[in-house]
Design a protein that fits this description.
Blueprint (H helix, E strand, L loop, with lengths): L3 H21 L6 H17 L6 E4 L3 H10 L3 H16 L8 H24 L6 H9 L8 H14 L6 H9 L9 H17 L9 E7 L6 E7 L2 E7 L6 H12 L3 H14 L8 E3 L3 H17 L2 H16 L6 H11 L5 H10 L5 H11 L4 H14 L4 H16 L7 H11 L6 H4 L1
Parallel strand pairs: 2-4
Antiparallel strand pairs: 1-5, 3-4
């Protein structure tokens, strides 16, 4: 088996040939392609200052070496990004070319986001909402404690008993932990179910695949590292016990039809078919993440609507985990109520990053209104400290993607249209403001 370095080198050569072939069909000196190349190199340069910034890259290896050797200062990166943005703004895409217009909008928002990230790293003050608008092109709604208290009231009625609602809920969930010895079997079964269902609606490359690793000491619960060539590495964090609902959620979100499919479709459609080099790189703190996380979360329910999910859990996943399949509906009735608290984490992040909550107050908010045990709340705070306003991409992203697709006829009652719209959205340039 080739080493990782050898495999990467082969992919880089193949990509270079693919880009050359695609670009040769376009007018020489296409200014959009030149701006896109500048963008990729600037993202790589910023990655030298920000270890989390470059989430994936499978473009020319020489550009990566150039970024390492040149070690551009932040102010120089910013100046070059401003120049690229001004050059882009001087171009007017053809009105009858929707895809090129979408590319123009995507590149503009991406360059603006890169400039904002440089400013943040340089110490520029931004509120939580200013940061999310600048980086992700979206601002999450502000919700009060009273809003979440009303949801907790409904949970109180659903889970009567002794102790606080947090104590009762966490005691209830303890009965639905996947035993460590069953984790891989359950997760692999969930992946296969997601893959089969996704393939019913999306034409995937025959050579696509990913590997799964189990890791510890991370601030996140799962991560997809896209490698190019339709390959991914998916890591699952086992620091804390994993509840049964997370198996299908992670399989869909990180794999099918989530991040793995999102990235490979953009590689196939944008890079290999059109030679649009900006899609060989994925800057994490950028508008692309709003679509990536939002579609990955929306994809869970699109792939397994309520009854289909309950059937899979009851007949396959609960038995594999050694859990009582007779309790599937009971568990998910509670989980559906808890999902209404999903924006509570945004308020903890907003309060903490805006200096209105200290660490203990943010953890207390998460235990009270997100119903997290203290160890999970502390891990979530670690995530907030590392990724900051990125948290809006999951819940607001899912909500806006859902509204966009359903408003165009992609309702649960019309699965073919739902999947067509979903597939289109993850196969082309798109930003949050387009979804409004």
């Amino acid at each position: 088996m080739p080493s990782r370095i050898t495999t990467r080198a082969i992919l880089a050569v193949l990509l270079s040939l693919s880009l050359a072939a695609c670009q040769s069909a376009e007018p020489q000196g296409n200014p959009m392609n030149e701006i896109a190349e500048s963008f990729v190199k600037l993202v790589l340069a910023l990655g030298q200052h920000d270890a989390d910034y470059v989430d994936a890259y499978f473009g020319p290896e020489g550009w990566q070496l150039e970024a390492q050797e040149s070690a551009l200062a932040l102010d120089e990166i910013r100046n070059r990004a401003v120049d690229a943005l001004e050059a882009l703004q001087s171009l007017t895409p053809e009105r009858d070319d929707n895809l090129t217009a979408a590319r123009h909008l995507f590149m503009g928002k991406s360059l603006e986001s890169l400039i904002a990230r440089v400013d943040l790293l340089s110490g520029a003050p931004m509120t939580f909402d200013q940061e999310s608008a600048a980086l992700y092109d979206a601002v999450a709604p502000t919700l009060s404690a009273e809003h979440f208290q009303r949801v907790l009231g409904r949970l109180e009625d659903r889970m009567p008993g002794e102790g606080s609602i947090l104590e009762r809920y966490n005691a209830f969930r303890q009965e639905f932990i996947i035993p460590a010895e069953h984790l891989d079997g359950v997760f692999q079964a969930a992946i296969e179910a997601c893959r089969q269902e996704t393939r019913r609606y999306i034409d995937l490359p025959t050579n696509e695949s990913f590997t799964v690793e189990y890791v510890t000491d991370k601030s996140w619960s799962g991560y997809n590292w896209y490698k190019g060539g339709y390959q991914s590495l998916i890591q699952v964090n086992t620091d804390l016990p994993i509840y049964i609902d997370r198996a299908l959620d992670l399989a869909c979100h990180e794999g099918y039809p989530g991040h793995h499919v999102y990235n490979l479709l953009l590689e196939r459609e944008m890079v290999n078919e059109r030679g649009w080099v900006e899609f060989t790189i994925y800057p994490l703190f950028s508008p692309r993440s709003f679509l990536a996380e939002g579609t990955a979360n929306f994809g869970i329910d699109a792939t397994f609507p309520t009854e289909a999910r309950l059937k899979l859990e009851e007949t396959v996943l609960f038995p594999l985990a050694g859990l009582d399949p007779q309790r599937v509906r009971e568990y998910y009735e509670v989980q559906d109520l808890v999902k209404e608290l999903r924006f509570a984490g945004n308020e903890a992040a907003r309060g903490y990053l805006d200096g209105k909550m200290d660490a203990d107050e943010a953890v207390d908010w998460l235990t009270t209104y997100s119903l997290m045990s203290r160890d999970r709340a502390e891990k979530r705070l670690r995530f907030i400290e590392q990724y900051r306003s990125y948290v809006i991409n999951y819940n607001l992203g899912q909500e806006m993607v859902g509204q966009y697709i359903e408003s165009r006829g992609g309702t649960p009652e019309q699965p073919e249209e739902r999947w067509r719209l979903f597939s289109d959205l993850i196969s082309r340039p798109a930003v949050a403001s387009e979804l409004k």
